[in-house]
Amino acid sequence: MFAIPLLLGITFISFMVIHLAPGDPVEIISGEGIPIDLKPLQDFYKLYGLDQPLHVQYWNWLKRIVRLDFGQSFAPHGRPVIHMIRERLPVTLALNVIEMLIMVALSVPVGVTSATRQYSTFDKSTTVFVFVGFATPDFWLAVMLQILLGVHLGWLPISGLRLPVWEYLPFWQQQWDFLSHLILPITVATFGGLAGYSRYMRQSMLEVIRQDYVQSARAKGLPESVVIGKHALRNAMLPIVTVLGLSVPGLIGGSVIIETIFALPGMGQLMVQAVFERDYPVIMGNLVIVASLTLFANLVADLSYGLIDPRIRVGRRGRA
Amino acid sequence: MNAFWRALSKNRLALGGGAVVLTLAVMAVAAPLVAPHDPHKPDTKRILEAPSSRHWLGTDQVGRDVLSRMLYGARVSLAVGFVSVGIATAIGIALGSAAGYHGGTVDAAVMRLVDLMLVFPRFFLLLAVLAFLTPSIWTIMSVIGLTGWMGVARLVRAEFLALKEREFVIWSQSVGASAVRIIWRHILPNAMAPVLVAMTLGIPAAILTESGLSFLGLGVRPPHATWGNILNDGKEVIELAWWLSVYPGVAILLTVLSYNLLGEGIRDALDPRLRQSVGRFGGRGR
To answer: ipTM value of the model?
Structure first.
């Protein structure tokens, strides 16, 4: 239930960000210096309710967005914002879910191996990777990979989701084409996060394997694979779930850059376009949807916490 | 304090990072003296020249010297890093100490605000604000600062919650010291260790954010040279002039890496237990 005040808060902040910022949307659209008492401009103010006091505007806006009506884009096509978002949301969602799965799938074994073989060559080289991965600007890595793998070697397509001739390709080529378009963006997007997760996983595992119950599992004569894979891993995963939840806004925020560079038609690209065009219904709609999405992801992380660790019952647990 | 320096001086990686950080700061401050050319002066006879003895890192589309532009760019990056982290830290300390010291409704209100702000993916929030502001270095700094204080607020609050029960605080309260005085003179100095670490790790995050925004063309505007700007220019001509795209990226990477190494070194030297509370997440500034 705590989600409802937060949802309200999201709409409030999104509204304030746009309305408290200096610069009048009408002036921005019409060009500065045009006298504001022109009749068409006044009609425009009326049309969007901009002549009313702020709290009335907020209330009216809120009443509309409850029905997911975010108004119409200022762009010449004037499409409803929610339609534009509905087109783009699946791309961003799919990218982020795939990224998360890959990051978990890779960072768990890497982290566990580093922890169980602390100070080995493997551990040391992953530590170097972690620091470099963390410091690499994703937009730069993206451009470098585009040039190297896309242009010079010609192995992978560098932008978009499909070839223009996609429809005419045979079935398997269609699948490969789609997949090959995703390889570069997903590699870049997972790079930095992978570093962070592996580090966390290592840290968490190091703490767990020192504990008594791991020793007693060994003393029982269980094979090391069971001790690590079953007894230790489950507890070591707990902090990772929290970190996963916390990193959702970062991942979604990162898709702004990834989608822009690789020309993927997702929410991030939509946001950048809207910002350049000062299309403020789209900006507000985007902000609300993206923040609600993060809120939802945090909820899921909280719930899955209880699934992994039966000691925690969600109902009993206050929000940290 | 001596123990701190001893621990830090044993950490070679942190020292290396510190050396790079220091060199960079000196070069940035001394940019007008050390830059071999005028960073803003076009030279139409030397457009997109490859690195040579005259232009160590080559020239850009209008014949400006890339090395000089990167030196001036370091000024912008460092200034944005320091100022925005300063703003974020000030807000974080103010709200975090109020929440931690007073507890109750103040605490609840501040922490809900923190929760709320953390729900917004930072890049989306930044873009939304920037869409309606006239772009300048100052707006970028303030916007990055205003969207980055939540971590510090949480840290400071946690420290305050622990410290306010200690004898020296209770003693000060019993002799009638004002809340502001107790917070400033007694609790805050004891709570600064994690804040210092968070600041050191916050600077590279802010630098990454600024260069990302500038790369998108929404950050610091030309004619100011920034690393992100140079990369943005460079991506148009990457086939002709790799140097425009490689060097600024390497500069960002090295800078962020050095700050992170230094920050982690400081953290471990101050108090290894801080590993728990001052993590590296959020370190990428998205």
So the answer is: 0.85
